Amino acid sequence: FLAPKIANVNWQSKLNKDAHHTSDYSSTEAILRRGQAFSITLNLQTTVQSGDNFTFIASTGPSPAESQQTKAIFNLSEEGDSGWSATQEPSEPGCMNFIIFSPANAVIGRYKLKLQIVSGNKISSTLLGQFVLLFNPWCPNDDVYMANEKERWEYVLNESGIIFQGLEKYIQPEAWNYGQFEEGILDISLAILDRSLNHCQDPAADVSNRNNPIYVSRVVSAMVNSNDEKGVVEGKWSGKYCSGINPLQWSGSVTILRKWYRGRYKPVRYGQCWVFAGVMCTVLRSLGIPTRVITNFNSAHDRNINLSVDKYVDISGKTLHLTKDSVWNFHVWNESWFIRRDLGSFYDGWQVLDATPQERSKGIYQCGPASTRAIKEGDVNLDYDTSFVFAAVNADYVTWIHYSNKRKERIYSNTRKIGKFISTKAVGTNSRVDVTANYKYPEGSRKERQVYKKALKLLGVRSTAKRTKIERRRRQSSVAWRQNMTQPAQTPSISGKLILDASPVIGQDILLTLALQNLTSDFKTVKVKLRASAILYTRKPKAEILQLSRSIKLGSEEVKKISVKISYSQYKSALMDDRKILVTAVCETKQGASLLVEKDIVLQHPFLTIKVLGPTVVHKAVNVQVTFTNPLPEVVTDCVLRAEGSGLLKEQLRINVARMDPMESSTVQFEIIPYSSGNRQLQVDLVCIHFSDIKGFVMLDVAPA
């Protein structure tokens, strides 16, 4: 007997890619989803005898083993214990068509497929080739199954998105290029798994666990930051970014992931929370796990998880770093969709993952997956890191004035400030969807109270940290009133508010009014100490801009307004790479009442306009015209216009803009040749050392060739 010889193998690329929803991947390799049949055709040099036996061997990882589910041996027309199977289909003479099934709980990753043929007493073994197996949100038996087709398109197949940033009262959409199907990105995502600490410590066990989205997503949350295992992105929240790139200048994940991969796994400098979340979204979508990006406004970083975040200021309004707790204007994380076999079906659905290195979890900077259902119900004892995320959306915000004699005074406790307008991009459009109700019951409701008390009990926080009924009833306010530590809140004697006179624009003076009102019939002298600081989105001060002191006399129930001007010359050197200012005013009366008024300001910059000069069709060149304005009252040089977009530009495009006069508008034209059809996002970014980036984007509907 002569064993049949195989001339070549046809992996039926188009047929399989269409069936498996993988035709968007820029790869010639067979990319398949688990729990679903795929076809291969063998072209034979010799004929097959009727008694020939066919055995397939699928294996993955460095040391495949059936006991670890990293190797499957299955005979034709017999379903083996592994759940893998193969059947033969009718075929032309000289060919053999096979349908191969992988189980819905198969390990994901790159596989080798071998065929062993026993013909009489002869055994031949042939490597048929390699394929990549991914999670399958289209398969009802897969843990990542998502029933809604529009949601699958958004959370698995959409290569672009919106990440919301700014302030709770000034929410800004920022475009992000995920690019999970761009050339090399899937290989990089698989390399991320292979670079993890778990893989280094026990490669066989690590690969064996890759059938589980809980495990894979947690590993990715650790690997996207560089803190433990030379992961992808290095975070930086202070100082200058000279030895890397300012986090505000990234517009997408593709450039970052390629830079890490091409640079032999050297962490890419620098990222902040939206960068970590954008990159993690790309990696998880590329592996087939439905994933979205979430923004939590007024996000608590509660280091000791006691559900209380303390802020200290001195009598001049300067923020004091007496605690490691903080409240960020916003924080960005991810949610991925899968079931929780470890917790029970009640906790299935959206799971929070956070790659920003804030706190260690089991010794490593990783966070999640934490079930949103567990967070909403206060089940803070459940895996993974549910207590940390619960605190981020539920902690109290307590403000203290710290006097020079080390005496401190609690002036306000706000129970409703934290966890506002939790946001994500809508399915199918770029609008904002509020998902706060997925994280907590309505503020002040009876159910929300019960959940909070349950969480305190599970965390073992002593009753002294509980909110009093008086504090709980208080409504959120823009001002902070002195509260006696042992008595109910006093009736406030003065009120105050900081008001912007006009929208603040980069390059122009900022005009504010501090309005103070005497709420009593007694005459009062109020000492006002006002301070303006450039801050990060974490509300950490970067540089002082302005300090002033005033003494204001207020008659019975009198209102007085103090005009404040922050000139461009005062803030320009502090705001060359960002646009955020915090203004604080500490107001004290001789009667001892203390008032803290705060105002967060984000400077606006002029829009850039993007015009596409013709229809967009795959493989047809089209010109794009971008018009932008120098917002400053001075000449700027050495600006760069950058453009990127999955399916539109293979690499980021950079065009030098030599010089712009004060307030001068300039137009740049460039060519794009789309290479993928469908709805595409073109992002344009004007980068300059004199001011923070001016960004814009346009959605293009690219027709097939």
From TrEMBL:
Residues 265-357 form the Transglutaminase-like domain. It is an enzyme of class 2 (transferase). Ca(2+) binds at residues 394, 396, 443, 448. The keyword Metal-binding applies. It catalyses: L-glutaminyl-[protein] + L-lysyl-[protein] = [protein]-L-lysyl-N(6)-5-L-glutamyl-[protein] + NH4(+). Signal peptide: none annotated. GO terms for molecular function: metal ion binding; protein-glutamine gamma-glutamyltransferase activity. PROSITE patterns: TRANSGLUTAMINASES (PS00547). It holds the Pfam family Transglut_core. Its EC number is 2.3.2.13. Keywords: Acyltransferase, Calcium, Metal-binding, Transferase. The active site is at residues 273, 331, 354. SMART domains: TGc. Binds 1 Ca(2+) ion per subunit. InterPro entries: Ig-like_fold, Ig_E-set, Papain-like_cys_pep_sf, Transglutaminase, Transglutaminase-like, Transglutaminase-like_sf, Transglutaminase_animal, Transglutaminase_AS. PANTHER family: PROTEIN-GLUTAMINE GAMMA-GLUTAMYLTRANSFERASE (PTHR11590), PROTEIN-GLUTAMINE GAMMA-GLUTAMYLTRANSFERASE 6 (PTHR11590:SF50). Belongs to the transglutaminase superfamily. Transglutaminase family. This is protein-glutamine gamma-glutamyltransferase. It comes from Probosciger aterrimus (Palm cockatoo).
